Amino acid sequence: MSVNQQAHTGPPYGQPQPGYQGYQQPAYGGQSLPGVPRSQYGAYNGPMPEYQQPVPPQGSLRAPPTSGAPPPASGASHPSGHLAYSQFEHGDVQNGIPASAAPMQRPPASQPFLPGSGSTPVSQPSAFQQYGPPPASVQQLSNHMAGMTIGTATASAPPPAGLGYGPPTSVPPVSGSFSPPGSGLYTPYSATQGPPPTSVPQGLPVAQPPFPGQTVSTQRLPTQVPGFAPPPPSTGVGPSSYPPTTGAPRPPAMPGPPLPGQTLAGPPSSQPNHVTSPPPPSALAGLHPGPPMSGLHGPPPPTHPPQPGYQMQQNGSFGQVRGPQPNYGGAYPGTPNYGSPPGPPPPPKRLDPDSIPSPQLNELPPQQKPRHRIDPDAIPSPIQVIEDDRSNRGSEPFVTGARGQVPPLVTTNFLVKDQGNASPRYIRCTSYNIPCTSDMAKQSQVPLAAVIKPLATLPPEETLPYLVDHGESGPVRCNRCKAYMCPFMQFIEGGRRFQCCFCSCVTEVPPHYFQHLDHTGKRVDFYDRPELSLGSYEFLATVDYCKNNKFPSPPAFIFMIDVSYNAVKSGLVRLICEELKSLLDYLPREGNMEESAIRVGFVTYNKVLHFYNVKSSLAQPQMMVVSDVADMFVPLLDGFLVNVNESRTVITSLLDQIPEMFADTRETETVFAPVIQAGLEALKAAECAGKLFIFHTSLPIAEAPGKLKNRDDRKLINTDKEKTLFQPQTSFYNNLAKDCVAQGCCVDLFLFPNQYLDVATLGVVPYQTGGSIYKYAYFQLETDQDRFLNDLRRDVQKEVGFDAVMRVRTSTGIRATDFFGAFYMSNTTDVEMAGLDCDKTITVEFKHDDKLSEDSGALLQCALLYTSCAGQRRLRIHNLSLNCCTQLADLYRNCETDTLINYLAKYAYRGVLSSPVKTVRDALINQCAQILACYRKNCASPSSAGQLILPECMKLLPVYLNCVLKSDVLQPGPEVTTDDRAYIRQLVTSMDVAETNVFFYPRLLPLTKADVDSDSLPAAIRNSEERLSKGDIYLLENGLNIFVWVGVSVQQGLIQNLFGVSSFGQISNTLSALPVLENPFSKKVRSIVDMLQGQRSRYMKLIIVKQEDKLEMLFKHFLVEDKSLSGGASYVDFLCHMHKEIRQLLS
Ligand SMILES: [Zn+2]
Q: How far is the CA of 827 from the centre of ligand 1 (A)?
């Protein structure tokens, strides 16, 4: 290899642009002809009047909903050649770039989606029900049954129309058969704004469950008396007040027997949510004894009995679903699950739990009164809630037709059918029924937020968003607010105009887009156009949406490898180079393109940077060294960014040589900012967006811009200066990030620290450019390479968009006010991301700016403008309609606690940047207490102050909130480093709801209960030490780690089968993977581990923990229902504390 030190010369590249092959959209039904030379940009200048008659789709992935769609029904009304429409005022386009005077035209042909068609999509028909009556899902029904009614709105609700998504009463049944568009058959779609009038859709269960948050029965929060009394035998006692006896049939004495026919699952339950029966008044004072722990935790340390070993649980069962949890609407033995499988339609009658007598303390046998501790089985169980949702909602697809439907939990496997609203995989909300007024919202303190994952990966059974091409005129948009055409736009005047569902402005329908309306006012091509009938779809963007009015080039990936002493010595450099040789064959490609359009480049660095020329015509790669890091530039024009296949020989040679070249390096110092600058300059010169993959090992202390000093200081913890640990130590990186975003330069950072390297500062650029950070502390080849390589492979291959701008529009009355995630904002509305991958999530908060109405509901439209991996400019649109309410009970009935926690965690994790951690924690507790107090005051029926009453949908709020409060960011244990906290803080900020759910409340599985003959997982158990048996082996995962915990008394045979050693003492706790052994137990456990790894966006680190070994402390940190070493409260204690806070608010 030739090396030349190059001076600061060299104009930016004049590298030829590789054409715009990206626009062929192969996978999307567009004509992609493999082997056909890519058309150059110029080819698109041809006339394109006939866009409505595109080539029939070929790809199956995104075939239009209409298979073999014929030409538009109203072909005559598609005047060809109508090009410019005045309403496209791009100058004001939020997501676009001001229109150029001479917009480029694009080829008609590539348009995959065929407007107008005679044949109707098979899948559409059912869709129709969206406008029908309540898809009373089974589960919902049962929920209702278990709940109570407040308010009268639903009182007149007719009996739910059967199960599932049965035909609407007011609409012709739609079973499978579907009449062609234009038939006018579908009357229900009413004129005003699309969706059904909502609010009180007669008993639309989904949207408006007839019952207020089913107040779950109350568990007792009895006085806490030191000492522990075993649960009394509970025969003949109302289940709602006693711990279950395993397997015991439902007590006959249950008051308020379920109505005939009703699928009531819970016992009198009905009150399952009242968490308690009131303790005797005299006992109330003693309810929260003990000094508040740092003012936050109420009761004294849990009075858990000493646990000699891990004795069996009271109910003696491990692994299986523990006995029914009274009062949680959980299934009692012998009681059918809520409604699943679908049973007979329940009677139209609802229960008012408050009207059902529940056993009060004074009704109980005297000997049972004294309760010495709260029975953990008597407080809301995450496991039970998750199991119930799975059994109730896992079997039916979630059809998104109706407004304001609360989706199944993220822990439930379900299929989604898009019938007009975005899938919950793209958007989840804290509530699907939002208060009409700002006052109501403030009163409840329930944050209104949406967690949006615009490029989420869908399971193979679901359809990717269709790509719609409107030719050179681009997407049809509202004249005023620029909202994109969507199912909620209302066509008027025979279809010549449409009224915007967001701002009410009336806009002309462009001639090429005109279509007749049927007698219900719906366009006859409704089902043929994704943008009229689906919640999510994409538009091909025109040149007006491109930077500098120029279509983008395909993006580039630049691999930048630290070759300082530590990196070389650990074997990391060699590992990366070896891996890249094969990984480069798996760069993201679009649809069925034969090869990726992404170009690659390589840089190595320590105190200086080395650029490599890997032009295909070279026999050997050439190195160019830039030692003047103060003013970074790219020393070579041609040959830096190349096509992998063309330059394969040279690249392979380079990757072979790099480890050798630096094998004897003595250089320990590194630079960091100049590395990013170099990548940025290279992308600028190539006039493309792209991603930098930086592999870095140490604090950049070498003399250079962005040089850092070690400022770690754990003494700052719990002081007012603690926030500085989360802040970058210089603003240099913020400015650099801004430049990167402007260029579409996304940074993914792989860190391999052996000591503090200031993640808070190094993470600024990855964070603000939409990139990712991976951290492998004390990296060791043997134990960490699998994890690193799996992460790298996934990171390189995953779907990603570049140069992205996201805007969320809302209907009048609310607006997006705050945003959380990895991005940059230069104004108050546009979320800019140099890169956005399929795992990245943005949480958006909404506030009222006016009144909302129950009739029109509220709408969200998320528009993401981005460049695909093939260089195609696109707009991805997600729409979601929500209900609005004038009754607080409706709000509480339609909340999603997992989403709420996602928002609250992100809110708190941002708060630590500017406020003392204690302030942040107190604010969280206060807000949640207010949320629950408001419910108690306004929605629950009067009851003793000694009762803790939780809304059904929020009964896990206390336990989950406690997990957030105890997390490393808000309450670090002694083993948590400053870098760990900064890392976790940034990581959580981009997490989706499923990730935050398992991160804060890990999944704990008893492996020894696994059925080796089935594919299923053993039933999860609650995260508490008292649930562990020393004779069993457990797995705990939280999205970042997998622990395998082995009890001291595990049978020798099991140990032999799983670890291949003959005794507990011989198990090595340094294993990073389970040995591959040929026996059913080993296979089963390894398949579980593999399955879990496949579900998470990062490869989890496997840690073997032996009971009573020192690593067990680390493991116990994740048993989040227990008191933590760092002072975090146990679940029981925290629940008592919340109760106290609520009572103070109410008094
Ligand atoms: Zn508008």
A: 20
